[in-house]
Amino acid sequence: MQILTPHVYWAQRHGEIYLRVELSDAKVGQSTTSSRLFSGHGAKGDNEYEFSLEFLRPVRSEINHKSTQRQVDIKIKKQEEHWWDRLTLQEKKPLFLAPDFDRWLDESDAEMELQAKEEEKINRISVESRVPYLGLKKGYLFMYNLVQFLGFSWVFVNMTVRLFILGQDSFYDTFHTTADMMYFCQMMAMLEVINPLLGLVKTGFFPAMIQVTGRNVILFVIFGSLEEMQNKPVVFFVFYLWSTIEIFRYPFYMLACIGTDWKLLTWLRYSLWIPLYPLGVIAEAVAVIQSLPIFDETRLFSFPLPAVLGHSLSFSYSLQLYLVLMFLGLFINFRHLYKQRRRRYRSRKRKVH
Ligand SMILES: CCCCCCCCCCCCC/C=C/C(=O)SCCNC(=O)CCNC(=O)[C@H](O)C(C)(C)COP(=O)(O)OP(=O)(O)OC[C@H]1O[C@@H](n2cnc3c(N)ncnc32)[C@H](O)[C@@H]1OP(=O)(O)O
């Protein structure tokens, strides 16, 4: 088979060289610091491709490469941090080589970029040393998120396994098998209202309040206090929808605590709520509606009235008002989450350019 030369684009920083090889679905074969072999789809179809470069100055032997559907990105570290006048030893640039204008910076811009990174690092270190409780805060949030992640994962895995083994029968005893863990997680979740009040997280107090109050009403008042509700299939749907979002949200926060960001996890955290939140509120509304006749019958939590007005006011009236509040709450939090999503993706795009 004929070996062809791909188009290669380059850019540099003081410490590294970036090469972008225009080959789709490429597999990287044998590579040395000066030559590379690929098989992939280029301008002339599926072929073997190879190029070699004699660099202007020495480079380190470890090479990073990443193949994507469209290209191969190669990062090579310079032996010494130094700005190069050109890439290759030979003055005349090889025909297959061109500047990568997406990454291109001239020497002064690259210096400014380096300086900005240094300043950011120094700022971070000085903030961390000025505020000694910062490490404590991160530790607390990390542990909180870890415990919640483990709790909700336990609920999710338990329910999934039971669903596979028992099928629809598992719908009827979700409460008895998972409620203790759900109680624990939900009681812990009260901290999510306190954390923004103490300035520990940037979350708005009101969205967190709506979220926690909404779940508390369902878990403690509707399911917890009415035995008749505990074996209804709606418990399964409510718990499953809650735990599905949380097994992605808490690890996302955990990574945020250690300054890491996994693209897929971030996307799931800021996208899954789009179907899950309305479904969750619908499931909760079904639970509330199913509980109304039970509250009427049992008179549990009913409000005593003066004799002229009747015996007592059923708690179901409060719940009917709550049903309206639920859809108002859904609207407020949906808008909040939508804004968070836009903010996240807008600021990330800005950072990339
Ligand atoms: C006054 C009371 C009125 C009561 C009325 C009641 C009505 C109730 C109606 C509503 C009923 C809803 C019931 C719920 C149903 C469901 O849950 S269904 C399943 C789907 N659910 C979801 O998808 C919602 C999941 N929950 C959330 O997303 C949150 O609870 C939220 C409060 C709604 C929004 O989260 P928020 O924290 O504001 O957004 P983020 O972008 O994730 O975070 C902002 C920044 O803060 C950092 N942060 C937050 N928490 C932590 C943490 N624990 N640890 C570390 N860091 C945290 C986060 O990283 C962000 O930082 P930056 O990235 O730097 O901005």
Description:
The structure is a single chain. This protein has 353 residues and is of the alpha+beta class. It folds into two domains: 8-104, Immunoglobulin-like; 123-342, no CATH class. It is 57% helix and 17% strand. It has ten helices and eleven strands. The strands form three sheets. A five-stranded mixed sheet has the order 7-8-3-2-9, with no helix packed on it. It has a four-stranded mixed sheet with strand order 1-6-5-4, with no helix packed on it. Helix 7 (233-257) crosses helix 8. The longest helix is centred in the C-terminal third of the chain and has 38 residues, at 315-352. It is elongated and about 100 Å long. The two termini are 40 Å apart. Bound molecules: ligand LEDWP2DD. Residues 141, 144-145, 201-204, 207-211, 213-215, 241-242, 245, 249, 253, 256-257, 273, 276-277, 280-281, 284, 325-326, 329-330, 333, 337, 340 line the site of ligand LEDWP2DD.
